[in-house]
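re: the backbone from monday

yeah here it is again, tokenized this time
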């Protein structure tokens, strides 16, 4: 390449993408106000015959399709999984992003759904067993049980240490992960869903 014009041309309209094999997901954190005035968060229970995480509690959402924005993914997945029309979902804001250690990122979006739409859900039965509400006040009063996970490096046995100028004692980066568990109203909310819940509650408390 003998000219910088190609660099300018290619990168002028370049859309940043993850480097390497990376998965992007997006979910909606739906708030619902019950007729008694209690503000709740809506959760889903994954179908028990699913290959991935059967029976676990989660938020509506899923894998981002090629060319799709995090916002569009969250709305599309919510409509597909619950039958709540996209136009009936009030999107308040993009929430915080959870950067996972296993080559994925999870975008969150804060939304509002009417109680009437909640009562009329048409679940995608192969993916969702049920949806339910948990009052925010109940979550705020619940102290989650916290467990810890350490992520360590396991390097290819054929790695050429001498070639790159290091030895087998090289201090590879490691990670630390907390696993909160909420036991509230007879439901156990844990893992990524609990981490998002924890972050949403912390943001509201600010």
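seq for it, each position gets an aa:
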């Amino acid at each position: 390449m003998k000219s910088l014009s190609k660099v300018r041309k290619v990168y002028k309209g370049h859309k940043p993408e993850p480097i390497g094999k990376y998965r992007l997901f997006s979910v909606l954190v739906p708030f619902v106000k019950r007729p008694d005035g209690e503000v709740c968060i809506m959760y889903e229970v994954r179908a028990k015959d699913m290959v991935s995480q059967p029976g676990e509690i989660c938020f509506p959402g899923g894998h981002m399709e090629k060319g799709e924005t995090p916002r569009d993914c969250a709305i599309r997945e919510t409509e597909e999984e619950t039958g709540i029309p996209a136009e009936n979902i009030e999107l308040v804001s993009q929430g915080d992003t959870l950067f996972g250690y296993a080559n994925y990122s999870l975008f969150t979006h804060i939304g509002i759904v009417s109680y009437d739409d909640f009562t009329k859900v048409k679940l995608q039965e192969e993916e969702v067993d049920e949806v339910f509400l948990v009052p925010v006040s109940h979550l705020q009063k619940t102290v989650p049980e916290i467990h810890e996970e350490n992520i360590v490096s396991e390097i290819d046995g054929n790695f050429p240490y001498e070639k790159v100028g290091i030895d087998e004692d090289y201090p590879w980066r490691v990670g630390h992960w907390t696993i909160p568990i909420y036991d509230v109203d007879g439901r156990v909310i844990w893992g990524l869903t609990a981490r998002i819940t924890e972050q949403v509650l912390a943001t509201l408390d600010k």
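Residues 191-205 form the longest helix (15 residues). DSSP finds six helices and ten strands in the chain.
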